[in-house]
Amino acid sequence: MAGGPAQAQTQATVAPPGMAERVAACTACHGKEGRATADGYYPRIAGKPETYLFNQLQNFRDGRRQYPMMNYLLANMSDDYLHQIAAFFANEHPPYPPPVPPAATAAVLERGRALVTDGIRERRIPACAACHGAALTGVQPAIPGLLGLPRDYINAQLGAWRNGVRKARTPDCMADIAQALTPEDINAASSWLSAQPVPAGALPAASLPAPLPMTCGSMSHSARSGR
Length: 227
Fold this sequence. Notes:
Cytochrome Bc1 Complex, Chain D, domain 2; 0% strand; globular
């Protein structure tokens, strides 16, 4: 074999690629360090709680979430490797860009603020802040933040839950909430959320001050798995 011993020695001294290289397929769409892309279609994955990221990777792999590129990319990955990917992006904290000025009216923004911070008691819709944290920056170990997301992305995800395209482990609390929201509610909440700046150094809260207002299968699974 031409150059056999020398070639073998060269190959033996080449270090295996680190996680930054291994997740290049992720950052190709989700942006450098997972900070999201300017078009807003691919969300920020940097700094999200590790277990939340793992749950979503697992949901794509197992078909609970549908997006052909993600389903194909993750189809044969083990839970252990999904945890490695989740841990890598959970520890990335690039700065957030400033929010895009809202196009919504003051009345729509106020409706969105009320829904996010107070919920709609008469329709048994809990406040977003009751689960995603008072600062809306997420909660460990598995609840994502809602700030720093584009309006169109928030609309798309709530619409996917509302229409049964996006799913999580049962009981699927987000599906129940989204199905109780009207299109006007979704527009108001997404308009207000996307207009809020992300505080410098924002991180997911360590815990919630009170129990979740409803049972969520993803959180129950996280507790059982110890992750």
